[in-house]
Amino acid sequence: MKHLQLKMTALAMFVIAGCAETPVISDAQADYRDISRPVLAVDMRVDGDNSGAAREFPVNANPRHYRAYVQATPNERYRLRVTNNSGERVGVVIAVDGRNIISGKQSNLRNDERMYILEPYASGTYEGWRSGQNRTNRFFFTQATNSYAAAWGDSSALGVIALAAYAEKPRRPPPRETHRMEVAPAAAPMMRPSPGTGYGESTWSPSNTVDFMPVKHPMNKLFLKYEWRETLCEKRILPECRMHQPSGNRFWPENGGYAPPPPRR
After folding, report:
1. What pLDDT shows up at residue 42?
2. Residue 139 burial by CB count (10 A; 0-12/13-18/19+): exposed, middle or buried?
3. Which superkingdom heads the taxonomic lineage of this protein's source (predicted)?
4. What DSSP line would sit under 145-210, residue for residue?
5. Higher model confidence: residue 52 or residue 180?
6. Confidence of residue 79 (pLDDT cuts 50, 70, 90)
7. Bond into 253 cis (ω within 30)
8. Running DSSP on this structure, what letter comes out for residue 73?
9. What pLDDT, on the 0 to 100 scale, is given for residue 10?
10. CB count in 10 Å sphere of residue 4
11. Pairing of strands 65-72, 220-228
């Protein structure tokens, strides 16, 4: 009996050890889950010249720090429509591929950067990189290597359109030193893997400068990660792609990642 007890103990230890090494299987191919888009104090949409409003797929529902995927159409010109839903004048710092769209400099969405000004409940349309007081060069979706940011050797935020909105400090006479900000009027062959935004043709876009002193912290931030349709399909974000695994890669299983039974002879 003593010998039997030892064998049973050894067996129990083996079973426990086996349980400790039970593999954890990650769901790397989990489908995107639809999330309701939040109401933002200052909102931004991507609008293509030909395709209209870009398809957007929220990653979170945080109105203070919103993130979403956006579908990009190769070689299409696009514009950014920004809406101030608040009852106060705001300044918006906008960066495309990590570059401030007014100065062209690398942006960190800070309150000391050049920004556009929007009156309460007003909207503005921004369709390109500002190249002068009355000119912009159009945004268009292109290869990452052909992007405006890449031309400056900057790949730190490719494929992301970002916005930070700042409320205005209360005005007190005499006026303090202020930043000079821009205010806008109201309202190539494509290859994956990643997109960028090019510096397109010049267009007429009049603007004027105004005095605006922003508060230190933004009221909200917004980040839109734009991708080609094929990439969104691979990530299983597009509804029409969630039930079908893309083909063409023998190292990408189509059976949920498990080993199927061998074929019978």
Report:
1. 98
2. buried
3. Bacteria
4. GGSHHHHTT--TTTTEEEEEEEEBPPP-SSP---EEEEE--B-----SS-EEEEEEEEEE---EEE
5. 52
6. very high
7. no
8. -
9. 40
10. 8
11. parallel
Amino acid at 74: P
CA–CA dist 204, 188 (Å, integer):
22
Structure-block tokens of residue 81: 């429509």
Peptide bond into 174 cis (omega under 30): yes
What are the tens digits of pLDDT across the range 38-60?
A: 999 999 999 999 999 999 999 99
The model's pTM: 0.74
Return the H-helix or E-strand segment holding 125: strand 123-126
Reported as type and span, the H/E element at residue 53 is strand 52-53
3-class state of residue 143 by DSSP: strand
Question: pLDDT for 9-32, tens place per residue?
Answer: 343 333 334 444 444 444 444 677
